[in-house]
From TrEMBL:
PROSITE patterns: NERD. This is NERD domain-containing protein. Pfam families: NERD, Zn_ribbon_Top1. Residues 4-121 form the NERD domain. GO terms for cellular component: chromosome. Gene3D superfamilies: Bacterial Topoisomerase I, domain 1. InterPro entries: NERD (IPR011528), Topo_IA_Znf (IPR013498). GO terms for molecular function: DNA binding; DNA topoisomerase activity.
Length: 233
């Protein structure tokens, strides 16, 4: 799955390379938010028409979901179905970290969240907080943003900040992966990855889930049919 995901990112990177010189792209960026946690972002494109933060998913089959759901569903042949963490929520955390890194006034920056599915047959997703598309639609979606919202000087200044803040240390990148794996193992063992409390089974509006016994002090929860991607940064 990891190799497939990397291939999907390379496909999107190639597509983004076809944009004009006024677009400046970054790929496989790692930054640190104000909470000390690291976020690994697949693609960021800076331009006078806005900043595009892109999360890539290389999933075959059919995808269904909505932006408020914890998980989305991938449907394959022979009635196989797999849940995965809502990539809109995932990308919102990336954007939050990016705003923190850029500057104090970054809350006003025109940032567009895009979720790109590579190799997917069909997508059935209702969303207003992000644009959810297949890779063939990516260039059109970005080029449809034609109103200038930033000067080239502002664009270059943010590019300079990101270049300085990008974590290139292999040690820190390896630690990022280990942290994700550790959180997954904690959930598997019934331990809250946020506070170390016990996860207890509960029934909510959307069915059975596991929530932290420390609620409401700790609000961590995960679907009963959780996937390790559910705690991915």
């Amino acid at each position: 799955m990891q190799q497939k995901g990397r291939i999907g990112e390379m496909v999107v990177q190639d597509i983004l390379s076809r944009l004009g010189n006024e677009y400046i792209g970054f790929h496989d960026i790692m930054i640190q938010g104000n909470n000390g946690n690291t976020a690994q972002i697949d693609h960021i494109v800076f331009s006078p028409y806005g900043i595009f933060v892109i999360e890539t998913k290389a999933y075959s089959g059919y995808i269904k979901g909505y932006e408020g759901a914890k998980n989305w569903v991938q449907f394959l042949k022979k009635q196989q179905r797999y849940e995965f963490y809502n990539p809109i929520k995932q990308n919102e955390q990336h954007i939050k970290a990016l705003r923190t890194v850029l500057n104090d006034s970054a809350s006003m920056l025109p940032i567009v969240s895009i979720i790109v599915f590579v190799g997917t047959k069909s997508i059935e997703v209702e969303a207003t907080r992000a644009i959810v598309i297949r890779e063939s639609e990516l260039l059109t979606v970005i080029r449809n943003h034609v109103n200038e919202k930033l000067t080239m000087q502002q664009t270059y200044e943010m590019v300079d900040v990101l270049q300085k803040m990008n974590i290139i240390s292999e040690t820190m990148r390896e630690q990022h992966i280990k942290d994700i794996q550790k959180r997954g193992e904690q959930v598997e063992n019934g331990i809250c990855p946020n506070c170390g409390g016990a996860l207890v089974e509960r029934i909510g509006k959307y069915g059975i889930f596991f929530g932290c016994s420390g609620y409401p002090r700790c609000k961590f929860k995960v679907s009963a049919k959780h996937n390790k991607e559910a705690i991915k940064s």
